[in-house]
Structure formats: structure tokens, C-alpha cells
Amino acid sequence: MSSVQHPEQKSEQKSPFRRWLTGVAQSTDLGMLPVIAALIVIWIVFETLNANFLTPRNLSNLAAQIVVTGTLALAEIYIILLGMIDLSIGWNSVLAASVFSLATVFFHLPVGVGIVLGIALATGLGFLQGMVVSRIGVPSFVVTLGGGMIAEGLTLAILTPHGGSVPLADNFTTAIGTLNLDPLWSWVLSLLLFGAYAAVTLNGIRKRTASGHEGGFAATMRLVGVAIMLFGAVFMLNAYRGVPFLLMIFLIALFASAFVTKSTRFGRHLYAVGGNAEAARRAGISVKGIQLAVFIIAGFLVGLAGYLDAARLGVASASVGNGDIMLNAVAAAVIGGTSLFGGRGSVYGALFGALVIASVSNGMNLLGAASSVRFIVEGLILLAAITIDTILRLRRMRSGRA
């Protein structure tokens, strides 16, 4: 007597990998899969066109190039998760660097004091902008556009009397911007970072399994992927000069942000507010408090990015703000998979988005291509990311999960 298999039974017989693959095909939230795929394609193309692209030396340069864009993108992701935008991050970071240079070079204050002053100023600006947005209700686009213009004016007032730039000479900042970790310490700190990430991930798998939910396979695959990328990067960087101090600082900020957004009540509330602010309010979440806190956190990260940029360049310069520093950060955040509609995305997108932007720029430079070509390629990648995000949102709306 033959038995008939129901669809549910067939589904249960599928391997975890096939269930994951089916889930991806039917998903309305692809996360960072598109940007990772795009990054792999970009690296293959540039390595094919120029064999120097994936050498340890060039990867070391690439690692240093992503730090500032990645840190600013990290700040921007916090804001975008709310469904908002921050157009002041570029000039606010330059202003923080300007205050640091003024404090240490002309007022001869200790380096630590200068760093605190610069980051505190950017954090304060984030607080003020957050107050206007959350308490008064002025759109973030307008508030941060005006805030960026004010920061630009203050920066020019500080640096113009000194020729528009102030070279930094303290040994600590020079070391941060130019030196690399000893290979042994690179492995030790990388293991510590991965251990913290693994502990959080495994705890999440345990909770999901205990509650009867699936998803352990996908989380395990992410864990394996992070291990391969992290330790592979350390191996390649150690083959040249080691992991740059700048990169390690950025990774610490990244992993800390991942913990805050994924493993704390604040993080859950952040996604809830970004997904549907009115529903979050009715659920008892302090929407205004979350919005203000996010702007403060973003301000801190912007101040940190300003100091790291000054350390990398060895100078605090107003010309940095006139470049595409802000546009690259916003592009990296969106390319990294953060939805412009709010409530969806991961802070790890700051790393992958910055890698895409820096890889295109670095690869074009190796090929001797004109900067116009680089802008066109970056623009096409950004448009593709936004298009995918919009299509997935429409799919969620049709399925009632928007």
C-alpha cells in the first residue's frame, strides 16, 4: 500500500542547505548577500585585469582606505535604520578633526584631551540634531543639511587662518595612522573579536532552537563565513606589514555596534521604531528617546571617524569636507544592504559597502582609469542596490510583511 507524501513531509526531508537556499530564493530580505556577491565579482574582475590587485601590499592599502568611509557608514546606518538620513556626517567629522588639531597643535593640550574634545563636539552636535528631529519633528534631511552647513562654516573659521590645514605632529596620532599591529597581536585580537561574535551567535542559535524555530543553519554558515573572512584577511595583511591600527579600531567599533543592535533591548527597539514608529509607540517604546539616542551614537562615531581620518592623512584639512566623503559613506551604507525605508539592515553592511566603494576606486587607480569612470561605476552599483531594496519592499508589501 503506497503512502502519499505531503508537501510538509517533503520539506522536512530537505537538507538544511536546500531549505536555506529555498528560503533565500523566496526571501523578501536578502540582507548582505547581494553586496557580498558584488564584492566577489569586483575582486575577480580587477584581479583578472591587474594581478597586483589581490596582493598583500594592495590589500593593506585597501584596508586603510575603508576605515573612514566604513566608520562614517556605520554612523549613517544607525540613522537610516530609523528611516532617516544624515547629511552632516562629512563636515561634522572634519570639524571634529579641526578641533583636535587646534587643541593639540596650538593649545598644546595632551593628545587624549584633544581626542575627547573632538569626539565630544561631534557627539554634542548629534545630540542637538537629535533633539530637533525627535522633539520638534523637523525632518532629518533638513536638520542635518543645515547642521552640515554650520559645521562647514565653523571648520573654515578654524582652519582658514592657518592656510586651510593643520599638520599633526604628535607621535601617538602618527602611530595610529601609519603603524600596524604586530602579527602575534593581530591574531590575538582577531581571535578575541571572533570569540565575542561567536559567543553571541551561538547563544542566538541556542535560543532559537529552544523555542522551536529554525535558522540555526543560516547562523552557522554566517559564523563560518565570518571566520574565513576575518582570519583570511589577517593572514593576508600579516604577509605584508600586519593589520593597520586604523582597521582594528574600526573593527572594534563595528563588532560593538553589532552587539548593540542585535543583542540588546535598545537594538530591538531601534529596528521596531525604524520599521513602524507608530506601532512601536503603541507597544510602549519611547520613540523619541530611541531617535535621540541614535543621533548621539552616530555623532560619537562621526567624531571617531574625524580623528581616524586626520591620523591617516597626518593633517586636519578643510579640503576633506569638499570631497565625496559624505556621499561615499551614504553610498556604502545603502550598498551594504541597509534599507532606506528603515527597520532593515545590518551594521556589517558598513564594512562590505565600504569595501565595494574602496575596491572600485582602488581597482580603477591600478588600471589608470579616469575618475569619471569610477563615479559612473559607483553610481551604477548604488542604483542597483536601491533598486533591489525597492523591489524587495514591494514584495513584502504584497505579502503583507512590509
UniProtKB/TrEMBL annotation:
One of its GO terms (molecular function) is transmembrane transporter activity. It is found in: Cell membrane. It is a multi-pass membrane protein. Keywords: Cell inner membrane, Cell membrane, Hydrolase, Membrane, Sugar transport, Transmembrane, Transmembrane helix, Transport. The chain crosses the membrane at residues 20-46, 62-82, 115-134, 141-164, 184-205, 217-237, 243-261, 290-308, 347-367, 373-392. Its main location: membrane. Part of the binding-protein-dependent transport system for D-xylose. Probably responsible for the translocation of the substrate across the membrane. This is Xylose transport system permease protein XylH. It comes from Acidiphilium cryptum (strain JF-5).
